[in-house]
Amino acid sequence: MELLFILGGTLIGIVLGTITGLIPGLHVNTVSLMLMGLIFFIDPLPLAAIIMAMAITHTLWNFVPSILLGAPDASTALSVLPGHQLLLEGRGAEAIYLTVAGGVGAVMISVCMLPLIVIGMPYVYGLIHPYMHFLLFIIAAIMIFSEKGHVKRGYAFTCFMLSGILGYMMFNMFTLSSRPPIVLPGGPNVFFPLFTGLFGLSTLIISLNKRVRIPAQVVYTHGIKKSIAVFGAIKSFFSGMVVGTLPGIGSAQAAVLAQQVTGKKDTDEFLVTVGGINTVVALFSLVSLYTISKARSGAAIAVDQVLGSFGPNELLLLVGVVLFATGISAILVLKSIGPAISFLKRFNYAMITMVIIIALIFGVGLLTEFRGILVLFTATAIGMLAPLLGVRRSNLMGVLMLPLILFYAGIV
Amino acid sequence: MKEPSLLRISVFCSIFGLIVIFYASLQPQPMVDICSITVSDAGMAARVSGTITSARVSSGHIFLDITNATCSIRYVIFNSSAAKMESGGGISPYSLGVGTRVVAQGIVDEYPKGSGRPEIVYSTGDIEVY
Lengths: 412, 130
Fold this sequence. Notes:
The complex is a heterodimer of chains A (412) and B (130).
Chain A: H1 2-22, H2 28-35, H3 44-61, H4 63-68, H5 80-88, H6 92-112, H7 114-128, H8 132-145, H9 150-172, H10 191-210, H11 226-245, H12 251-262, H13 267-291, H14 298-307, H15 312-346, H16 349-389, H17 398-408
Chain B: H1 3-26, E1 45-58, E2 61-67, E3 72-77, H2 79-87, E4 101-110, E5 118-122, E6 128-129
Parallel strand pairs in B: 3-5
Antiparallel strand pairs in B: 1-2, 1-4, 2-3, 4-5, 4-6
């Protein structure tokens, strides 16, 4: 009977992931943390299945608005330019197809390699743990120096430092409300207002200001080369491992690293890689939760808090959920690229954006009270700086990286 | 709105917000009655006052029982936080002994999980002795 509930939960997660994926700015981590409130009504395992199915489905769908509307979140930001390049060639639908192929391929490779990862990750983590601050510092430096020109690098450094200072205060000095209107398991979560502001509201406000319109589209796809799919998926797999092992690194940083290490010569392969990284990161967050007891994503944090303990049975079950959700979602995305394009065209994008902005502010107020709203306000303002200054949003991951560098260096 | 104007507003709000958060983080939490703290408050900030009725140090971690007229709660300062407080120039947490009256703040937690016993874990700020 419980298996039926888990299956039902997975299907609900697929529906929710489709919604969060299609709406830019509605980050899956935000919704994961909100879903924790359902623990009072739903058993832990089906709820964890909802959260993971939603997280994985989101990663397959969120390239649709990123490529079609040019309205990305942090994890899909790098796909915008190559995605639009294909869009202008009349291959917009194919750009989405490439990211889905990357997602499915990378998940398949990751699941095949799962036994090795489960054994190897604690060893690798133990090996690099003493040098964590150096590694994070190097990655931050690569991120900043990969911007073009001194001025952009200066802007990137500013965004990194401002988000880093905010993160430092959040994790070392500031405490959220003592009595919010709604109390979730684990209490008010500082990540909710922080990430909603940095990557959610800021994206929505800028999209609203730009008055985003869906460009004209030709809907057709043709097959992709096997070599492109395989190499892209392998790159995603290794990038996902980096994200799963190192704290404070997200799929955006992994994509920048993959871009720097391998070069962005082939647009098709790059889109496969970016699509794969996004999906593998969601899967690896489960693996790192099991192997090194570290939750590397909002969804993993929610799963951890909902389940209380995370053992091999939970890992296997949720990997099954991930596989099922990936398969179903990939078919759904591929079958509905055409209708999705027409569907998005019909919507009043500005109206949807306004509703989401109000809902997010309301949600933050309910869960974290006035002090959470203050964090949301500041994080949104800092989050808007990156796109307005013309640098990557991934520089805003200074919010985690700077406090972690200082922590691992023993400075705080 | 034009992008340069939006940028100016964002810069102002970023700096203003950071300053307000910094100021707010220096303010003490509102006082909470020890008797009203339950495990459902886990994760929330709390500031309590009372007398230390038990003090124990294990592996550098400090375990105190803070008691008011009728209720008592375990207060934990982990060794990393204790070391930070020592080097911060404030009161040494290791000097806190039985009979000392304190005002202390931290985050409510449940330990062991599922035990139904709340405790407060030191997070930020100084422990006031009076």
